[in-house]
Q: What sequence folds into this?
């Protein structure tokens, strides 16, 4: 998959295109992208996705923007896995936000990208003040020489599959519910970096995973599996939060204690899959009380793996 960091002046090849944030690449997105790829292959077009960085809501109201489900890198890996040929990552700024809807269609959709077939969600809005919608795209299609199709929402047990619904499940600790909406276990990918050594001092050495986002969509203590260390997921217990007992900086940290593991993994990129929530983060009255709770957390996680075993190592790029 080619990743284009700007909209070209002129298209290199005609495309079948869809536009959106695609945060999390849940089952609704996957249904949409499968349709895009199928049409692209049938018409000998490149299957292309246009997405924005930062996401529009992050640009207009960064303090109110929802937590991201996937970093840009994770999103691109998932897009590659479902067969997308080109990802246009467009810088979203005031200039982009002020383009009138019809001008957006003329300059970007048709001239810059040479879109021959366009797929959008049934609630898609675009252009300055969100002035464009599916009806406008339909009315402009004959003039600009593309076809347009709208997809309907995907439902799961009567609920619309959406990034918002996935976030709600994660925030509530319903990891099984989130997995059903995503079509895979929720995971965070990142590189192992040096931490402050607090876990080692407590008898729980941890892999500290660098977060590519300021605001994770979940927090707490979890049973987890780690990919990137062998043929199978490695059993672990993970802490994602601000560590209120031992720090006061308030920044979210992802720490993973790998059971019965030895080896130097600094610099490795790993995937942490969240399997079950054990508890919320809590402030303890003493280090001794914290360590006693960590002992209980670790035992509960070991009991989980004794009951369910570990999974074959899953590749984030395969979208599993």
A:
């Amino acid at each position: 998959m080619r990743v284009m960091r700007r909209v070209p002046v002129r298209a290199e090849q005609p495309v079948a295109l869809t536009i959106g944030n695609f945060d999390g690449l849940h089952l609704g997105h996957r249904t949409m992208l499968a349709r895009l790829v199928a049409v692209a292959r049938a018409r000998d077009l490149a299957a292309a996705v246009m997405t924005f960085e930062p996401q529009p809501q992050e640009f207009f109201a960064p303090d109110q923007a929802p937590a991201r489900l996937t970093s840009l890198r994770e999103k691109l890996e998932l897009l590659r896995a479902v067969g997308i040929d080109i990802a246009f990552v467009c810088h979203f700024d005031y200039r982009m936000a002020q383009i009138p809807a019809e001008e957006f269609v003329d300059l970007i959709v048709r001239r810059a990208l040479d879109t021959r077939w366009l797929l959008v969600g049934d609630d898609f809005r675009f252009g300055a003040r969100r002035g464009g919608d599916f009806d406008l795209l339909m009315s402009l299609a004959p003039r600009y020489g593309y076809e347009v199709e709208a997809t309907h929402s995907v439902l799961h047990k009567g609920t619309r599959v959406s990034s918002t619904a996935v976030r709600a499940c994660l925030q509530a600790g319903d990891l099984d519910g989130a997995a059903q909406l995503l079509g895979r276990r929720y995971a965070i990918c990142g590189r192992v970096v040096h931490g402050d050594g607090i876990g080692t001092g407590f008898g729980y050495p941890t892999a500290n995973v660098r977060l590519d986002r300021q605001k994770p969509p979940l927090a707490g203590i979890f049973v987890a599996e780690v990919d990137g260390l062998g043929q199978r997921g490695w059993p672990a217990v993970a802490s994602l939060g601000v560590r209120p007992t031992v720090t006061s900086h308030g920044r979210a940290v992802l720490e993973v204690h790998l059971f019965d593991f030895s080896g130097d993994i600094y610099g490795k990129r790993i995937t942490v899959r969240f399997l079950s929530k054990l508890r919320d983060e809590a402030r303890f009255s003493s280090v001794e009380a914290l360590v006693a709770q960590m002992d209980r957390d670790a035992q509960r996680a070991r009991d989980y793996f004794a009951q369910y075993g570990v999974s074959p190592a899953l590749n984030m790029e395969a979208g599993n």
